[in-house]
C-alpha cells in the first residue's frame, strides 16, 4: 500500500520524509534494517514557507521527482511470521543504536527474555560456553 512508500512529503517550502521502513513490524511486516534518513530541506524564509520566494517547484525539483516516481520507492517485505529472533540483524543493530527500555518493568521483562534467549543459544550449540556463560546459567 501507499503507507509503505518512502517518499518526501512537501508542504510549500518544507520537506519531511515519510519513513515506513522504521516501523514495518508495527504493521505486521518483516522488519528490515532501515535506510539512512535522507536530508530534508527548508527552501523558503517565513514561518510556514508561504512567504517570500514562490519558486518552490524549482528549488525542490529533486524531491518532486522522487514523489512523482513514488511507486519505485515502495518498501517491500514479507509478512512477519512469529517474533524476531534475538540474533535477527535488525535487533542486533537496534541494541547497538537505541535505548531499549523506557521503564524499569520493561527493562526487567527484556532482561529476562534476553537471558532465556542466551540460555537457548548455549544449550543448542549456537554459541560456545565459556566461564562467563556457565556463571550466567548458574
UniProtKB/TrEMBL annotation:
<feature type="domain" description="Aminotransferase-like plant mobile">
    <location>
        <begin position="3"/>
        <end position="94"/>
    </location>
</feature>
<dbReference type="GO" id="GO:0010073">
    <property type="term" value="P:meristem maintenance"/>
</dbReference>
<dbReference type="Pfam" id="PF10536">
    <property type="entry name" value="PMD"/>
</dbReference>
<protein>
    <recommendedName>
        <fullName>Aminotransferase-like plant mobile domain-containing protein</fullName>
    </recommendedName>
</protein>
<dbReference type="InterPro" id="IPR019557">
    <property type="entry name" value="AminoTfrase-like_pln_mobile"/>
</dbReference>
<dbReference type="InterPro" id="IPR044824">
    <property type="entry name" value="MAIN-like"/>
</dbReference>
